[in-house]
Write a structure and sequence with these properties.
The chain is an alpha+beta fold. Helices cover 37% and strands 18% of the residues. The strands form two sheets. A six-stranded mixed beta sheet has the order 7-6-1-3-2-8, covered by helices on one side. A two-stranded antiparallel ribbon has the order 4-5. Strand 6, helix 6 and strand 7 form a beta-alpha-beta unit.
Length: 215
Amino acid sequence: MQRTVALLLLLCLTSACAKVDAAAGIPGPAVDEQTGATTDRFAVFAGGCFWGVDAVFKHVKGVKRVTSGYSGGNASTAHYEIVSGGRKGHAETVRVIYDPSQTSYGQLLQIFFSVAHDPTQLNRQGPDTGTQYRSAIFFASADQQRIAQAYIDQLNKAKVFRGPIVTEVKALDVFYPAEAYHQDYFAQHPNALYIVINDAPKVSHLKDQFPQLYR
């Protein structure tokens, strides 16, 4: 996550930031979860560095809590110093607790693909490279799997993006919360160069593209 100023600016001025704009206005999912649920639900997404993905979902109406963490590996390797090496199967993820009476799993997916990350980048996001930064949806139920895969198929068929979506759809085993210093990192370090260049634009795009869901 630590990069030079020149590299960050170069990446932001090229495809890493341009792809977010290119995804503006992508259609909502044709398949979504049923309405009427009264208990909170959760979703787990991986889209590069968890700081920015966390910040985006924290600004979505109906989302009650977002936690940064790791998924895809085992408990003994769920530590940043190990995960950052990219060799133990983990991806940096966020767990989103949401009220399904205010927002739906499909709406969260639309935000995930529209502004939270670039789903066409394989094993990288912006300045960060490695399998730990891969695009992935870790489903917690057969319903989530069905909705996520249907949405990816829908977007690919519509050729919304300039390239194919490489997002992995995988069953969630365990979500391991990340270290305390990673939690709410965007709000705690709003002036950090990485945040300003890579993550603040995502929150701005959320506000512009989904004003009805932004808070």
